[in-house]
Amino acid sequence: MKTSTKVLIAFYVLTLIPSLVLGQYVFAGIIATGTGFIFNFDTLGIVGIILFVVNNIFGGILYLRFLRTLKLSKTIFFATLPLSIFYGIGMFFIAGSAIFDGVIFESIRAVLNISAQNIYNMVLWGILLTLIYFVVLFLIYSYVCRPVQKIEQFTRRLGDGRIGEEKIWLGKSKQFQNIEAALEKINYNYLEKEDLAKQTDLEAQKFIPRQFLKFLGKNSITELELGNQVRKKATTMYCDIVGSAKQPSALSLEENFNFLNSYLNIISPIIRRYGGFVDKYTGEGILAVFSRPESAMDCAVAVHRAIEIKNRSQKHLPNIDERICIHTGEVVIGIMGEEARMSPTIISDDGDITNKLEEIGKFMGTRIIFTKPALNDMPVKYKFAYRLIGSLSTAGQEACCVFECLEVYPRKKRERLVALKNKFEEGVRLYNSADYYNARKCFKEVLSYVSDDKPSYVYFNNACDRLDIS
Fold this sequence. Notes:
Blueprint: H1 3-21, H2 23-28, E1 30-32, E2 37-39, H3 43-68, H4 72-96, H5 103-112, H6 119-160, H7 174-204, H8 210-216, E3 229-243, H9 247-250, H10 253-273, E4 277-281, E5 285-290, H11 293-313, E6 320-338, E7 341-348, H12 351-364, E8 368-371, H13 372-376, E9 386-392, E10 400-405, H14 411-419, H15 421-432, H16 436-449, H17 454-467
Parallel strand pairs: 6-8
Antiparallel strand pairs: 1-2, 3-5, 3-6, 4-5, 6-7, 8-10, 9-10
């Protein structure tokens, strides 16, 4: 029992005894005259009334605390019991005043204006008292059953998955406190499972990116099934990480593994920043997928600059160079494997193009190259510096023009290459037409202004070989 309850009981007992003793003075001050009631309390009567009121206040508080210790069915019974008793007493006096004799009943008849001949008023008073009884009864039921409504609302929210961090409060009844504790535990378990699901989803995105799910029209990894696939146009970007010649001897296999991962940890976030996702890591390369070619191009330039910064920050380690190839075409994005081991992947009809682009980039010594389909899909308002460096052809397909992005070069070099773009592209067309003599002159002119332009140097040497010029 709480200390406050013990104090209330002590005050209740202390006020009960004197109020009973002084009760005779209270009743003596209520005088029935036959035509009404006169209230004439002496000092002891007033003190008795005060003690009676205080005693009833303490008793009411104790009664409410008693109700809170009961179950709902008993709470309803004991909450309505005093009201029913008062209602019964009131109906007895209303009905009895027309039947019984005596000064008290004569005074009641005079106050209520009822008599054996005036039954109408007695019925009206009975109806009024009954209405008051039902209104108060309704209020008691509403108050006592309010926690049940809260339970209904909260369990509906739990059923719909709408849970929250706020504390559940039902009522002070012991039974509802137990239910409250149980619902709190259920809510906590729901929150814990929801947090676990979110954490699992975040962990799963490390293996199956969110963008991959969007391509398939899925919201969660749990919706994926073997054979899920979608065919659509997409831009693939292959980034080949090329180490310096001294790297293999400078680092052990474990050090090389960690060394490459340090660069992948830089490149992968950049890919996500520009709306792409990593399809796979291929040893020393990354294959990424984008919905728009301009996003892939911006990403490629950002990757180049990030690698430059990384190289400058760790001078004690070998430098890393990158070769990036970008192509736009039809791909199938889906889930491959078998029920026990499924893997997300992309399949492209243009797989040979990526391989040949990588060979061209390696042969030409370029940083970023891309195909004509990627250029065609870029918005007209998207401006960047580029030049034609050649063409490639694959089995069963027409020759495809290949371009080099010039945005990765230092400003002065880029400006000179842009100024010499027409001369360089003229040399490429002459070379492809087997006019090696004039092609050689074009590339020689480019090299006279930009001596370290690798594609011009490659074309110039090849033209010399064709002309058998040493």
